[in-house]
């Protein structure tokens, strides 16, 4: 949940229900037409120019930027389309995947959403963007569902056209806080952004559930080239008592590695402290690159949304990569973005299959989900079902239907399960002090 500070949208998530969407669509489509100037001859969400036997979707993510990058998500989406089409498509319909680079930029994110409306996509599937306030208005205006976003923004858990498959940063941080309740002082190093401002109360909700005091909140530039000052400060605040080992929690996305370089140099002058973070900031590739068993992540707790990459429940995803990725090194089966994209397309496939020979459009896809369709993911998540208001609506997350996380630990340089099964963070999040 990172992103530059910006003005919040005044959209009220409770106003657009499935029953109201058709009435709102005409006005929203007019807005989309005005902004696009072309491409509105077909009602957004139909298969349009791609042909009656083709379903068009879009996947977007930032690539080649100075901050967080997720090139494996659109790359995997293309591989999935090749794989499903080689099997005859979905209900005999070919899958056409469009991709877009949001460049970690609000203007580019909005352009991706406007392009989705112009290209008449039936859904945006398995995507990552920090700029929900920029892309959701166009999707909502065109009635296009957003299925399986990465969980990078709180808006993904409030928009009635969002169908998240994981608990995003809220669940990861609440789960991590619970795991760190036995630590001494805890320092959180996070981006100095509006999305970064939401991280401390989420981590603190888990810490407080375990009887721990709040973390020491340290802001840092999202795209810095070094974090020497932040590393020194984190070590000072977490090593005040040698008998009470502290914990340092970097939550800087792709810049976690940069922070850990500074941290590794600075920690020689301080008592031993433990590190912990969330999956997406660290994966097995990062652990290997930073020294494996002798690196700074050895012994670290890491929370993730899904089982570890070696779990056999990922065999289906790995088959797609093996058969259709053609050695594409952008696609890492251990990457949380790639995993989320696989689950998102698994959801989308079941939605289309539920429609049988009927029309596949943005509206029919959203209606199937809103009408209580239950989706299974082979045990990678609990059974997913989206209702208008779910259990976490009272704390501002009405669309968050999967609050489960897994607790992992780095042992002998390998990321392994620290606890069997999932940890449900629903109750912890219900007590989180999140301000909007």
What does the model show?
There is one protein chain. With 436 residues, the protein is an alpha/beta fold. It is 35% helix and 14% strand. Strands 6, 7, 8, 9, 10, 11, 12 and 13 form an eight-stranded mixed beta sheet that branches. Strands 3-4-5 form a three-stranded parallel beta sheet. Helix 1 crosses helix 3 (106-118), helix 5 runs parallel beside helix 6 (199-209) and helix 7 (228-238) crosses helix 8 (256-266). The chain is globular. The two termini are 14 Å apart. The relative contact order is 0.15.
Give a quick precis of the structure:
The protein contains 13 helices and 13 strands.
The secondary-structure element order is HEHEHEHEEHEHEHEHEHEHHHEEEH
Distance between the ends: 14 Å
| Unreliable parts | 1-50
Helix content: 25-40%
Going by helix content, strand content and strand pairing, the class is alpha/beta
Main beta sheet strand tally, sense and closure: 8 strands, mixed
The count of DSSP E runs of length 2 or more, i.e. the number of strands, is: 13
- Supply the number of helical segments: 13
Strand content: 5-15%
- Round the mean pLDDT to the nearest integer and report it: 86
Radius of gyration: 21 Å
The shape is globular
């Amino acid at each position: 949940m990172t992103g530059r500070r910006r003005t919040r949208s005044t959209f009220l998530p409770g106003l657009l229900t499935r029953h109201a969407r058709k009435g709102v669509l005409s006005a929203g489509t007019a807005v989309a037409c005005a902004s696009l100037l072309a491409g509105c001859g077909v009602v957004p969400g139909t298969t349009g120019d791609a042909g009656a036997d083709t379903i068009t979707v879009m996947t977007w993510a930032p690539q080649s930027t100075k901050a967080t990058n997720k090139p494996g998500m659109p790359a995997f989406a293309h591989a999935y389309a090749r794989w499903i089409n080689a099997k005859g498509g979905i209900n005999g319909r070919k899958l056409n995947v469009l991709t877009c680079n949001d460049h970690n930029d609000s203007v580019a994110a909005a352009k991706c959403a406007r392009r989705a409306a112009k290209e008449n996509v039936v859904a945006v599937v398995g995507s990552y963007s920090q700029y929900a306030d920029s892309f959701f208005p166009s999707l909502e205006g065109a009635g296009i569902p957003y299925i399986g976003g990465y969980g990078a923004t709180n808006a993904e858990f409030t928009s009635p056209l969002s169908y998240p498959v994981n608990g995003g940063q809220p669940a990861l941080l609440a789960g991590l806080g619970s795991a760190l309740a036995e630590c001494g002082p805890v320092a959180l190093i996070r981006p100095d952004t509006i999305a970064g401002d939401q991280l401390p109360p989420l981590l603190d909700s888990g810490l407080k559930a375990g009887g721990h005091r709040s973390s020491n909140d340290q802001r840092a530039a999202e795209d810095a080239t070094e974090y020497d000052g932040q590393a020194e400060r984190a070590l000072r605040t977490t090593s005040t008592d040698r008998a009470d080992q502290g914990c340092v929690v970097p939550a800087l996305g792709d810049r976690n590695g940069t922070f850990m370089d500074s941290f590794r140099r600075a920690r020689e002058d301080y008592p031993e402290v433990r590190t912990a973070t969330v999956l997406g900031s660290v994966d097995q590739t990062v652990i290997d690159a930073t020294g494996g068993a002798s690196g700074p992540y050895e012994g670290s707790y890491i929370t993730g949304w899904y089982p570890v990459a070696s779990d056999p429940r990922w065999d289906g995803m790995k088959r797609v990569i093996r058969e259709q990725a053609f050695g594409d090194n952008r696609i890492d089966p251990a990457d949380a973005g790639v995993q989320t994209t696989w689950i998102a397309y698994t959801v989308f496939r079941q939605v289309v299959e539920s429609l049988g020979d009927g029309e596949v459009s943005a509206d029919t896809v959203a209606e199937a989900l809103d009408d209580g369709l239950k989706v299974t993911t082979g045990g990678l998540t609990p059974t997913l079902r989206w209702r208008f208001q779910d259990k976490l609506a009272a704390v501002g997350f009405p669309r968050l239907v999967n609050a489960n996380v897994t607790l992992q630990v780095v042992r002998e340089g390998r990321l392994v399960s620290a606890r069997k099964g999932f940890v449900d963070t629903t109750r912890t999040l219900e007590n989180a002090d999140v301000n909007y």
